[in-house]
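Consortium newsletter contribution from the modelling node. Members have asked for a concrete example of what our holo predictions look like. Here is one, prepared for the S-adenosylmethionine complex that several groups have been discussing at recent meetings.
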Amino acid sequence: MNDVEYWDLCAEKGLRQGMLWDNFKKRRMINNFLSNYDFTDRKILEIGTGFGVTAAILRLSYGGFHYTGIDISPHFTQIANDMFKHKMKVGSISAIPAEDNTAEDIFLFDVLEHIDPVQRATAYKELNRVITDDGRVFMNYPCDIEESGHSRDFEFGFSDRDFFDFIEAMQLKLFQFQKYVLNVNGFVNHYNFTVLGK
Ligand SMILES: C[S@@+](CC[C@H](N)C(=O)[O-])C[C@H]1O[C@@H](n2cnc3c(N)ncnc32)[C@H](O)[C@@H]1O
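And here is the predicted structure:
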């Protein structure tokens, strides 16, 4: 199975009888963190959108909301567009379908840990290409690979070392770094939410 097939399957499993399955507690945390920032008239690019729930919630909170999303899975992309009327495109972080220097805010929620470490340098180069000179990056990721429910073929973890490598490659400053813990159906999960900027 390749990565597109895997994520298409995840999308299929996440949609049950027309309803989305989501990690609702985590979604609320991410959107609570984001509510402290102003996205009015900022050009947002989300990569690895999944169903696009974060953006759907956010869109209702801002007047000028300029949002583009990409996901490697055609199935996730289709559902996100149908359900939330997003204009998401199929695309990979390794070849982002966006012009240079156009993304003022980049969202990466639970995505980088799914990028094969050998492909990360290419992904970071692409992110650097599309981010504007005053760009910000909003990220969420699980701290522990053991806590992921995903297949190890598509889950590589994102360690503190990986985080520092990312900051260095992107030449970013750290604005916020927030650890949080969630108990989801008896499973304890540790996450980091972070905001970085040029
Ligand atoms: C764990 S899900 C997170 C989805 C969403 N961001 C959220 O917060 O629910 C990871 C997402 O990244 C997407 N993805 C995986 N590899 C990707 C790649 N190389 N480029 C773009 N998206 C990718 C998957 O299809 C999936 O939607």
